[in-house]
Amino acid sequence: MEEAIASADVDIVCIALPNNLHEAAVLLCCKHKKAVMTTKPLGRNAEEAKRMLLAVEEAGIFNGYLEDLVYTPKFIKANESVKNGALGRILWAKSRETHPGPHSDWFWDIEQAGGGCILDLGCHCVEITRSYIGKDIKPVEVMCWADTQVKPIDAEDHAIGLVKYENGAIGQFEVSWTFRGGLDLRDEVMGTEGTIWINSFLRTGFDMFTTGKGADYVAEKAESNTGWLFPVGDELNELGYNHMFMDMFNAMEKGEAPKETFYDGYVVNAILDAAYRSAKTKFWEPVQLEIWRGKTGLSKESHLIEYDADHYLVKEEMTHYGARKLILKNKQTGKIIEQILES
Predict the structure, then answer these.
(1) Which residue from 16, 239, 272, 296 puts its CA 20 to 30 A from 121's CA?
(2) Is the dihedral of CA 141, 147, 152, 154 positive or negative?
(3) Cβ contacts of residue 205 below 8 Å, gap of 6+?
(4) Inter-axis angle of helices 122-133 and 262-281, to 10 degrees?
């Protein structure tokens, strides 16, 4: 490995190794001053990720975190809408990735992989929801359920988690290696002014039926090539790889940081560490971030909407008979009243 990394022909190293080998490869890149990008997760835990982050920064080398699902065309468009305020203040962001399980043997070995579906898939979902909520908003605690429901492995094959952020927003992840029917990638974002639903892979509007004659590869982690199938038109693009590598190489050429760096990988690992602790304790567990470069000291934003000097607005709607209905709360007494405004 060192001979390949040290080669004079190498400008940048792409680490696509089992998780337990990431750190050794990164340290060799630091030793030989090679730009580096690595597949997710950055480390098996936050401590490994922190060592890699500090190493590349001390070495002064380019570092990129290959989180492809924040580069998908649908995510990029959705996140632009969020940043432009189309949804108002983000209250809740959910991401789901489920499928029948990874391709390679090492994923199923807890020593090599570091965990199960939380680490393998949760890293995607956490960075997706964190991006919608704001990567500069500090994650503070996690509640997680996890279990090994189907597979004969030592790690978890199914998990659901909640991530609480300092500004009051909630991130949610649903991950599984036990889902039957293919690769299911879905996001949902809710704000004070709107909602986004994204179905990225399993049902994209391309439906096909076949008896199986002449059928071959259908889509990533598809379980069948007969019956009703859901192919993907441009799989590499739909999974974000084109945009991801374009961002990495453009940033490297310009001497800038890419959208996703080792720092992002470290934050994700810290959140997932808290998820694993919570799955064991059954309590909310704090996110232990020894390195934090975002905002601090935030509190939950006020949800109160002024209607007049005496009332807050609870809800406004148009009735079926054409009148505007207002639900108001008295500021002093707290009493809820209903007011009809004739059109």
Answers:
(1) 296
(2) positive
(3) none
(4) 110
Q: Poorest-confidence range of 152-156, 209-213, 283-287? A: 209-213
Q: What's the predicted TM-score (pTM) here? A: 0.91
Nearest-angstrom CA–CA distance, 32 and 129: 35
String of DSSP letters for 179-220: --SS-EEEEEEEETTEEEEEE-SS-SS--EEE-STT----ST
Question: Max CA-CA distance within the chain?
Answer: 79
pLDDT, tens only, 187-207 = 999 999 999 999 988 877 788
**Backbone dihedral angles phi then psi of residue 326, each to the nearest 5 degrees:** -120, 135
For 26, residues 6+ apart whose C-beta sits below 8 A from its C-beta are 15, 36, 38, 52, 55, 56
Tokens of 227: 């019956």
Count of CB atoms situated within 10 Å of the CB of 308:
9
Backbone angles phi, psi at 226, to 5 degrees: -135, 165
Q: Cα dihedral sign for 298, 171, 39, 47?
A: positive
Cα–Cα distance between 150 and 293 in angstroms, integer?
40
The sign of the CA dihedral 77, 81, 83, 87 is negative
Helix (H, G, I), strand (E, B) or coil at 155: coil
Digit-coded pLDDT (tens) for 29-82: 999 999 999 999 999 999 999 999 999 999 999 999 999 999 999 999 999 999
> Distance between CA 125 and CA 133 in Å, rounded?
12
Summarised one tens digit per residue, pLDDT across range 218-261 is 777 777 888 888 888 888 898 999 999 999 999 999 999 999 99
